[in-house]
Structures are given as structure tokens and as C-alpha cells.
Amino acid sequence: MARAPSTTVTKEEPLEKQLWKAADKLRKNIDAAEYKHVVLGLIFLKYISDSFVELFAKLQSGAGDYAGADPEDKDEYKAENVFFVPPEARWSFLLGKAKLPTVGSFVDAAMDAIEKENSSLKGVLPKVFARQNLDPASLGGLIDLVGNIALGDAKSRSADVLGHVFEYFLGEFALAEGKQGGQFYTPRSIVELLVEMLEPYKGRVFDPCCGSGGMFVQSEKFVTSHQGRVNDISIYGQESNQTTWRLAKMNLAIRGIDASQVKWNNEGSFLNDAHKDVKADFIIANPPFNVSDWSGELLRKDGRWQYGTPPAGNAAFDKQYYLDLICKAVKEHGSLSRKDIDELLWNKLPDWMDGWQAA
Predict the structure, then answer these.
(1) The CATH number of the domain where 168 resides is what?
(2) In the chain, fewer beta carbons within 10 Å around the N or the C end?
(3) Where are the beta strands (DSSP E) in the chain?
(4) Better-predicted residue by pLDDT, 40 or 287
């Protein structure tokens, strides 16, 4: 008896996973740490080009509010918070150069041109596409691949799709880099948990070691999902690693988030706070752990150490410190209510700190 045909439907992989697999095949023997700037740079370029082209078409049509508008007038784009993209940097132009052996030089020139036309992107975009270790054929394949993102979707959804792909790729590159990936990326589950705990509905959100900006992206998602107004929160951040800061600026721009107060601070927030005068309503961070050289010797008399001075040798002191607090609290009380926590923190914290430091 003939077997009945299978009715099992193969579930198609999500777009971002398909794109990641295809992009990873094109990586060949380039390190993930270097390759992420190539891929994420192209995704960002596609995003700003899509946004520009969409507004360009409206201005060119001259319909309604756009009557008499000049599609090449930079002020028209600034007024609508859209980056101006010169002709030599538009995606359609680069797509036409994708099969040329000099395609890398065209992409680098496009990045330069965009930075010159948009001061907020100065020093942000990667210019790594003409390097000898990046095969022109593979780069051309990547341009074709990224060019298909949001294909079949309404243009109004293009930013959402590209933003989601950018975020997914950040996570995958962090996994590929292993321990070093933690310098620029916090797992999404942790970010979501921290934001849900803080509930930043309204006010200033500050991240003193913001990495690639995931906390800010999630904060705005939180506001939107609770029917709030995104404009009710403003973000402030700083990042000591310039390469990571560049990723943050692109990550936020692709979401349409104002990143003007996200600063590159090569001294780090401990030694030189870039936002000394900001009174933040919410402070959210995943601080770097296990850093031996955190300049602790320069901060022996810092006013922030109200309950004792942490050891200079390892920035992981806070993990041990909190474990000690939890162990002592449970040992003394058996369990912790909210009232217990308040009493312990405000009344016994100084004594515990003294005991912990002496140990």
C-alpha cells in the first residue's frame, strides 16, 4: 500500500536567521570582530538610504505639504529627522557597483560622503570596505544580500525590519566573539529584565557604560508597548570604547532615537563623567566585570564611596559584595520581605561594609 504523502509543513526560518547564515558564509576567514563592522555598516547604510529615498519621492511629487519642495534641499530632510544621502552614497548607486573589483572603495567613499553631509555621524561610520582581506566578490554578495532586506514589506516598515536585523546581528556577533562580545552587547533577556524592573515611562534615562545602546532601544520599546509617548523620555550615555560607541550611534540612529547625548568618553565614567550636571530619573547599566585595571588607585578618596572604598585590584568587587550582603541577610533573617530589605540597606549597610572590607 502506497504511503500517504506527508502533510508536515517545513517552517521557514525568520528573515534575520536566513540573512545571518548567508552573511556568515560570505565571511570566509575574516575575524568576527572585524566582520561585524562590514555587515552592520552596510545595514545602516541601507537604512538611511531607504529613509532618504522615501522622503525624496514625496518631495519630488510636490503633493500636499510638499508642494514646491526641492528634493535636493538638505534642510527638507533635516526638518523631518532624515539623514541626507548624496547621490554617490545612495543604495541604488552602490548596487550598480557591487560586481566591480573596486566596490570597497565606492562604499568607503559613500561613508565619507554621508559623514560630511551629516555632522551627527562624523567619525561614526566604518571605512573598512577597501581592505585587502575583504574579497570584493564577497562584499558584492553582501550588498546584494542586504539589498533584499525588507523586500516585500511596506517601505514604512523598512526601518523596523532593518532595526530588528541590526539588533539580531549584534547578538550573533557577540556570540561569535565569545568573551569579548560582552564589551558591546548585553543579552536581550537581561536588558528586558532590567528595563521592566525600572519602568522608565517618563524622564531622563542614563547608562554610564552604554555599550551598543541596547538599554536605550529597550527603554523606548517599553514606553511604546505601554502606550506611552516616546518623546517623554530622553537618553544620556557614555562609552569608553570608541568602536563600541560607533555601534551605539548607528544602532540608535537606525531606530530613530536621538543619540546626541551619547558621548564617547575614552577616560571612562569613573574618572571623567561626561554628564556631571545631568539629574537622571533612571540609571540603568550592565557594568564591566573582572576588570583589573579600573584606575582604583586614583579614586581612593572619591566622594562616591560613602560606605567604604572598594579594592583597587578588581572591578568585580560589587559581585562579591552583593553576595555577601545576601548571605548575611538570609543567615540573620531566614527570608527577606520588602520591609526587611529597606531596613537592611539603610540601617545595616555601613556595618556590613566595614566587616566585608576587614575580611
Answers:
(1) 1.20.1260.30
(2) N
(3) 203-207, 233-239, 262-264, 282-283
(4) 40
